[in-house]
Amino acid sequence: MESAPTRVLVVANKTATSDAVLDAVRQRAARGPCAFTLLVPISAPGLHRLVNPEDVPDTEAVAVLDRALPLMSQAAGAPVDGRIGVPEPLAAIQDAINLVGFDEVIVSTLPHRVSRWLHLDLPSKVAGLGLPVTTVTGEDSTTTDTPSAA
């Protein structure tokens, strides 16, 4: 009897099409049968993060999924499911784990100097949920311009 594939949750936003996360998916797929799901938490810009993070359109997250799913499916060697999560990344991950169930998590973040997720210590908090976590650092792949270090 064949065992079910490992269910891997990939959490990314601005790095969803970066070489780093695509390489991580490729490497994980090479280790054995996997079913990948890309979770993109909604970005709540500026004051929306504090004032009303639930009242943020998912337009940007949908665009990220549209760009990333074909690339990630190619890297995985199989179709990848996509989900949009609430703006708070840990809550989005907990929701996905509770609703779908996953066996491990790949968290893809921006470099430490600009990563809100790393400043929130998201990878450690996700590991606290009891699942193996792989953290990869990629560059912002949502823009073609080089952002200034503001």
Structure in a nutshell:
The chain has 150 residues and is of the alpha/beta class. It has six helices and five strands. Helix 1 links the parallel strand 1 and strand 2.
Please explain how this structure is put together.
- By secondary structure, the protein is of the alpha/beta class.
- The chain has 6 helices and 5 strands.
- Strands 3-2-1-4-5 form a 5-stranded parallel beta sheet.
- Strand 1 (6-11), helix 1 and strand 2 (34-41) form a beta-alpha-beta unit.
- It starts with 5 loop residues before the first strand and ends in a 13-residue tail after the last strand.
- The model is unreliable at 143-150 (pLDDT under 50).
Going by helix content, strand content and strand pairing, the class is: alpha/beta
* CATH classification, class level: Alpha Beta
Query: Which CATH architecture is right?
Result: 3-Layer(aba) Sandwich
| CATH fold category name | Rossmann fold
Helix content: 25-40%
**Cα-atom radius of gyration:** 15 Å
Beta-strand percentage range: 15-25%
pLDDT averaged over residues = 86
Strand order across the biggest sheet?
A: 3-2-1-4-5
Question: What's the overall geometry?
Answer: globular
| Total beta strands | 5
Low-confidence sequence ranges: 143-150
Order of helices and strands: EHEHHEHEHHE
Fourth CATH level, the homologous superfamily = HUPs
What's the domain count? Answer: 1
The main sheet comes to: 5 strands, parallel
Query: How far is the first residue's CA from the last residue's CA?
Result: 55 Å
Q: What count of helical segments does DSSP give? A: 6
